[in-house]
Amino acid sequence: MPLRLMLDTHVLLWMLTDPARLSAKVRDAVTERSTELLVSSASAWEIATKQRLGKLPQADVLTRAFRQHLTRLAVESIPISDEHSLLAGSMEWQHRDPFDRMIAAQCMTESLPLATADEAFKTLVGIEVIW
Question: Where are the domains of the chain?
């Protein structure tokens, strides 16, 4: 059965701008044709928010053509459901970042491993981190 892999927002950005920053394990997974690459709709929200706040100043190019970039990378977006939202808001996890909480909830609900370099996810029971 092919791997279904959720990409954290920074992994998606690195795939687009600086693939050398990906770990060898993640690079192998995302280049494997049979891997189903997924990204949370929360990542689009996170990128647009950080671009607006000046934390990702050149992301306007990405936000204007977000769907085309996903298509080019063969990445599917996972919409946010009520189930995802309820879990993200109620899970016992000290990490307060709303984008990360949503990505974690989607991984838990959909039984998806997460490609991330973010150490915060390693403290959360119920998430398989690939890095």
Answer: 4-130
CA atoms within 13 A on the CB side of 69: 17
Rounded CA Rg of the chain: 14
Question: What digits encode the pLDDT tens for the residues 6-24?
Answer: 999 999 999 998 999 999 9
Architecture of domain 4-130: 3-Layer(aba) Sandwich (3.40)
Q: What are 120's two structure tokens? A: 């915060």
pTM attached to this predicted model:
0.93
Strand order in the sheet with 114-115: 75-78, 36-40, 4-7, 114-115, 129-130
Residues 70-102 have pLDDT tens digits of: 999 999 999 999 999 999 999 988 888 999 999
